Amino acid sequence: MTRDEVAHLARLARLAVTEEELDLFAGQLDVILGSIARIREVAASDIKPTSHAVPLQNVLRPDQVAPSLPRQAVLAGAPAVEDDRFRVPQILGEEE
Amino acid sequence: MTELYELDASQTAEAVASGQASAVDVARSHLDRIAAVDSEVRAFLHVDVDGALAAAREVDQRRADGEQLGPLAGVPLAMKDVVVTAGVPTTSGSKILEGWIPPYDATVARRVKQAGIVMLGKTNMDEFAMGSSTENSAYQITRNPWDLSRVPGGSSGGSSAAVSARQAPLAIGTDTGGSIRQPAAVTGIVGHKPTYGAVSRYGLIAFSSSLDQAGPFGRTVLDTALLHQVMAGHDPADSTSIPQPGPDVVAAARQGARGDLSGLKVGVVTELTGAGGGYQAGVLARFRDAVDTLQKLGAEVVELSCPHFDYALAAYYLIAPSECSSNLARFDAVRYGLRVGDDGTRSLEEVMSLTREQGFGPEVKRRIMIGTYALSSGYYDAYYGQAQKVRTLISDDFRKAFEQVDVLVSPSSPFVAFGVGERVADPMAMYVNDLCTLPASLAGTPAISVPCGLTDEAGPALPVGLQVMAPAMADDRCYRVAAAYEAAYLAEHGPILQHVPTLGASR
C-alpha cells in the first residue's frame, strides 16, 4: 500500500492525516492487509454470505406519536448551536 | 473483619436483604476502596460518587418501605464507558466524545437501575472498544491488579480490572471479538458474551453492529448469571433483539454448582488448542487440566475439528473494520462531541476531517481505513464479501459440532496478561489475542470465560481462562458447565482471587 493510496482512503474517510501518519499507516495497513488476505484462499464461491448471526427481518411498530427527547437536551451536547438548531459550517463554497 | 467490598455480589445482596448492611454502607465501602486503589489500577474514567450514594439511598428507602426488591438490589456495579448513561459522562474511551453528557440511558443502564443495582462509575476501555489491552484508551492506561506492570486485557479492561481489584463485585462489558472473555481470563474473573441479540444494544456506542454484544462480569459464575438475568430480554428499541425469552441462566449456574456433568458431551476444538503454535505452554497446560476436571465431573470429552475457525481472524478483521468505518461516520462534528477548525472560512468537510483527525486515536484510524478499503468498489467481493461467506462457513462448523457435542471448550486467550507497551507497536501482535474468541463472535453464539488456574511461565503467577461455547440461545449450558468447573476448582484450590497481591499498600 502506497502513501497515495493511504491518502486516498483517508480522504474518503474524512481523516486529515499528517505526513508522518501517511508513512506509518502505509506500512501498518500493508501488514494487516497481508495477514487478512488469506481469506481469499477459502473456496466459497457457492456459499451464501452471512451479514448477521440472527436472521434479520423488518420490525414494525404502530405508527403512533411517542415522546421524544426535549430539544434542549439534544442540543446540549452539540459543539455549536444557533436559534435552537445545530449550527453547521458552510456546506457550499462561496462561488457554488 | 471482612470489608464489605470483599464480598461477592450474592453475599452483598444477602447482606443488604437481611439488613446486616445498608446499600449506602456497601456503596461507601466500594467508593472508599476505589479511592484507595484506583490511583494504581486506573480502572475508572469517572466515579459517580453522588449518583451512587443517591441510588443506594433509594434502595434502602424502598426496602424500608417494605418493597420486594430484585436479587441484586444494593449491589454495586462498574459500567463500561461504551454504555450511554443519562447525566453521567460517556466517552467510549475517545477524545472525540470528551465531556459529552448523554441525554438518555442505554437499555442495559436502565435495566440495571430498575434492578436496584448501584452504578459506581464508568470504566476505561480501548477507544470505541477497538483493542485487547485497554491501551488504546485516549485517557489512561489501566493496570492488571495481578501485576501492575501488565495490561488487564481489553477492550473491557477497566471493567475486568475493577472486579478483580475488588472495586466492584460486578461489571458490564461489551464483546465484539472477545472484549469480555479475554479481559476476564487475564484478570482471573468470570465474563460471559451472551447470544447475539439476547441483550439489547440500544444505547451502546456502536463499533461493529452485527457483532457487538453487552454482557456481565463477576467474581463467581452465579454472580455473573444473576447480572446476565437483569441485562437480558427483548427490547423493542433494538431491531436485532431476539423477541423470545432467554434460558434461566441462574438456575443453570445453581444446577452446575452441584458438580455433576454426567451425560454431557464436551468437544475440544483442535483449531483452538495451539496445534499451529502461537499459544503459551502454561495456558495449554491449565487448559488440559481443566478438560481433565470436566471429565472427572462426568462429562464425555471428544476432540473435533472446526476447519474454518482458522480463518476467523481474517474474517473478523475485515467485517469489524468495515462496519466501524460506517458506524463511526456519525462523528461528524455536528451533533455531539468535538469540533476542530471551525473558523468561519472552512467548509463542513474540512472541519469534519480535522475533527476526526484530532479526535480519533491511531487504532481507530487504522480500522476506519481498512474498512473503507474493504468496502470500496473493486475490492468488495474479494474482501468484505468473502469474509461474509467465511462467516457462514464458521457458523456451519459450529452447527456440525453441536450435532455431536453439547458444548465446545478452548482456552479463552492464547496468552496470559502481557506487559504494558509490549504489543502496541505491531497491530497484528495485538489482534492475535482474539484467536480463541472470534469464532463465537462471528457465529453470534454464547461463550463464557471462567478462571482455570495460574501459570508462572511469564514470570509472576497469572490467571488463565477456560472458554465454554454453546449454541445460540443455550447460554444456560455455558453457565452450567462453568459453575460445575468452578465448584471443582474451588474445592481443590480455593478462590483464585486470593492470590491477587495487596493493592493500595503505598497508602
What does this 3D model show about the protein?
The complex is a heterodimer of chains A (96) and B (507). With 96 residues, chain A is mainly alpha-helical. Chain A contains 3 helices and 2 strands, in the order αααββ. Chain A has helices spanning 3-12, 19-36, 71-75; strands at residues 81-82, 85-86. In chain A, strands 1-2 form a two-stranded antiparallel sheet. In chain A, helix 1 crosses helix 2. Chain B is of the alpha/beta class and 507 residues long. Chain B has helices at residues 9-17, 23-41, 49-64, 107-114, 157-164, 181-187, 221-231, 249-256, 281-296, 312-327, 348-359, 362-375, 381-404, 427-431, 438-443, 475-493, and strands at residues 44-47, 76-80, 118-123, 170-175, 190-193, 213-218, 265-269, 300-304, 407-411, 447-455, 462-469. Chain B has an 11-stranded mixed beta sheet with strand order 1-3-2-4-6-5-10-11-9-7-8, sandwiched between helices. The mean pLDDT of chain B is 96. Chains A and B meet through helix 1 and helix 2 of A and helix 10, helix 11, helix 12, helix 13 and helix 14 of B.
Structure characteristics:
heterodimer, A: mainly alpha, 2 strands, 4% strand, flat, B: 507 residues, alpha/beta, eleven-stranded mixed sheet, 16 helices, 11 strands
Topology:
The complex is a heterodimer of chains A (96) and B (507).
Chain A lengths: L2 H10 L6 H18 L34 H5 L5 E2 L2 E2 L10
Antiparallel strand pairs in A: 1-2
Helix pairs in contact in A: 1-2
Chain B lengths: L8 H9 L5 H19 L2 E4 L1 H16 L11 E5 L26 H8 L3 E6 L33 H8 L5 E6 L5 H7 L2 E4 L19 E6 L2 H11 L17 H8 L8 E5 L11 H16 L3 E5 L7 H16 L20 H12 L2 H14 L5 H24 L2 E5 L15 H5 L6 H6 L3 E9 L6 E8 L5 H19 L14
Q: How many helix segments of chain B? A: 16
E-strand count of chain A: 2
Distance between the termini of chain B: 19 Å
Number of helices of chain A: 3
Task: Give the helix proportion of chain B (percent range).
Answer: 25-40%
Strand content of chain B: 5-15%
The SSE order of chain A reads HHHEE
| Anisotropy-based shape of chain B | globular
Strand count, sense and barrel status of the largest sheet of chain B are: 11 strands, mixed
The succession of helices and strands of chain B, N to C, reads HHEHEHEHEHEEHHEHEHHHHEHHEEH
Q: Within the largest sheet of chain B, what's the order of strands? A: 1-3-2-4-6-5-10-11-9-7-8
